[in-house]
Amino acid sequence: MKKTIKDFELSGKKVIIRCDFNVPIENGVIKDDSRIKASLKTIRYARKHNAKVILLSHLGRIKTEEDKKKNTLKPVAEKLSVLLRKKVKFIDQTRGEKLENAIAQMKDKDVILIENTRFEDLDGKKESNNDPSLGKYWAHLGDIFINDAFGTIHRCHASNLGIENNLPSGIGFLVENEIKKLSKLTNNPKKPYTIILGGSKVSDKIGVISNLITKADYLLIGGGMAFTFLKAAGFNIGSSLCEKEKIDFCKEMLDKYPNKLILPIDVITATEINENAKTQERFLGEIEEEEIGLDIGPKTVEVFKQYLDDCKTIFWNGPVGYFELKPFQNGTKQLLDIITQTKAYTVVGGGDTARAASDFNYQNKISHISTGGGASLAFLEGIKLPSLDAIDEK
Ligand code: ADP
Ligand code: MG
Question: What is the CATH number of domain 184-381?
Answer without folding.
Answer: 3.40.50.1260
